[in-house]
Amino acid sequence: MGKPAGITIHVPDVLSRFSGGEEEVLVEAETVGEALDALFAIHTRLRPRVLDEAGRIHPYLLLVVEGEQLDRSAFADHPVVSGDEIDILPAVEGGAPPRDVRFRGFASRTPVAEARAVALSELISRLEVVPLDDAAGRVLAEDFVSDHAVPPFDRSAMDGYAVRAEDTYGASNYDPVSLRLVGESMPGATETPDVGVGEACRIMTGAPMPLGADAVLMAEDAREEDGRVEVEAPVPPAKNVGRMGEDVAVGDLVLRRGRRLRPQDLGLLASLGAGEVTVYERPRVVILVTGNELLAAGSAPRPGCIIDSNTPMLRALVRRDGGVVQKALRLKDDEALIDETLRALEADILIASGGSSVGREDFLPQLIGKLGRLQVHGVAMRPAAPAGIGMIGDMKVFLLPGNPVSCLAAYDILAGPAVRRWGGRPHATGFPYPRRAMTTSRAIASVPGRLDYVRVEVEGDQARPLAAKGAAILSSTTRADGFLLVPEDKEGLEEGSSVEVYLYDEEAGR
Ligand code: AMP
Ligand code: MG
Question: Which residues lie near ion ligand 2 (Cβ < 5 Å)?
């Protein structure tokens, strides 16, 4: 197929709403400057999105002509000939220049909602049966319907006397009613005396109600003398009696599927005769960090090297979300080694960090494509644009950027929901952070078509964006109390905007 006559300009999908949805525009031109002018003549609203007031390419974009990145202020005279392609691309996190055509993948970044849908697709959860004693924190895999009543018999809720309420009417300490004591009912008793008219039975809390009695008189309202009970106060029917099934009736839906079992749930399940319970398995997760510069966590800092901070962070995140870290691997940027390692993996979810972008050393996207399917590469968010999602066999794969802040954001936005969903946790798509309504104390800039993850400090009900925005500044996440999201349809947030802030912990900012 021949190339079209003319210059093809690729408009990134984040800007395509300013080009009437067109992502490819064909123009006639001899220089890049002329080509862009022709583009802006057709789509006038694009100009201010692509060029700043001085006529330079905005810093959040890259201009690439036939695979070569041009300087943002010196591109105009660059010659083009018919058949050439001009790419306007969202800048990759960290501003890495494109090194080869794979970079074109990022020309259309997947919207976050779409990427999240891919993240949550094709998860093949498994169930297991565990003893009740090991079930705390696990996620119930089926509705639990009771086939027993709790309590399984009518029982006394007081120490006192089981009586027929009618017999006590009119009793007072001046004019007690005298009843014949027929025996007693103790907790655990399997046989109890019947209570007839004019009779009472001594009874303890938790003991079965004797046949014939319909109320329990508190011990304080009676005196026992010579085999008789002197009733000094009346008691209404049903008083101080725990009815069979009042706690749980046969057929009650006691706990729903998806419930994260609390200690008290185990108590209730035990009371219903359950000794074990069917729960979701926990996903087996492998963490893989790549980078020639990386030293194992725990190493002494050394010039030229970076200590792997993502593994400890990811381990804790996976654990928080109910996954089991089966192993954590650290590899050099060595294509053959990574290839071999990926082939040998057996896990439910692979979380890789580093090497996820489009640089020369970034082998993971290609390898996932080769060994399986790369479903998403490049997500319309910041930080963490160079994230990817794929499958190798049944193993779900997440490619997270190596920059620690991006790694955290991409985990929380994409991988975390999958770990939680795999393990049957409810609210897989919400963040597992407490949320608070606040007001921004400063304006926050963003661009349309992109979700921004903005770290904030909290003071009272004010959220202040942190000055250090770089994705490499991990300490910004420890200084931050939480984060907010600037949605795709906003160009930013004005000072004083109402926002929801996700707090890294309950106490944040207090
Ligand atoms: P990459 O995503 O491999 O291009 O890495 C981006 C940046 O993150 C580089 O500065 C890396 O040194 C850094 N980085 C990559 N992996 C890690 C890691 N596991 N821990 C800390 N920093 C990392
Ligand atoms: Mg790297």
Answer: 291, 354-355, 402
Q: How far are the Cα atoms of 171, 222, 424 from residue 226, in angstroms, in the given order?
A: 19, 13, 64
Q: Ligand 1 pocket check: which of 294, 302, 474, 478 to mutate, most ligand atoms within 8 Å of Cβ?
A: 294
pLDDT digits (tens, 9 = 90+) for 179-238: 999 999 999 999 999 999 999 999 999 999 999 999 999 999 999 999 999 999 999 999
How far is CA 28 from its chain centroid?
A: 49
Place of tokens 């086939």: 147
Q: How confident is the model over 319-363, as pLDDT tens digits?
A: 999 999 999 999 999 999 999 999 999 999 999 999 998 888 899
Q: CB burial class (10 A; 0-12, 13-18, 19+) of residue 253? A: exposed
Q: Residue 290: which H helix or E strand, with range?
A: strand 284-290
**Can you give the pTM of this predicted structure?**
0.75
Which residue of 103, 299, 305, 306 sits with most ligand 1 atoms within 8 Å of its CB, as the best mutation to test the pocket?
306
**Distance (Å, rounded) from C-alpha 455 to C-alpha 432?**
16
What tokens does 35 get?
């080509």
Domains contained in the chain, CATH given:
5-90 (3.10.20.30), 112-124+282-422 (3.40.980.10), 127-149+247-279 (3.90.105.10), 155-242 (2.170.190.11), 435-503 (2.40.340.10)
In this structure, what are the phi and psi dihedrals at residue 254, rounded to the nearest 5 degrees? -85, -50
